[in-house]
Amino acid sequence: MTPELTALTLAALLQIVQFGLFAVPANIELGTGYTSGPRDTAPKRPLSPRTARMQRAMNNHFEGLILFAIAALVVTLSGQSSATTAACGWIYLAARIAYIPAYAFGWTPWRSAIWAVGFAATTIMLLASLF
Question: Which fold does the domain 3-30+48-130 belong to in CATH?
Answer without folding.
Answer: Four Helix Bundle (Hemerythrin (Met), subunit A) (1.20.120)
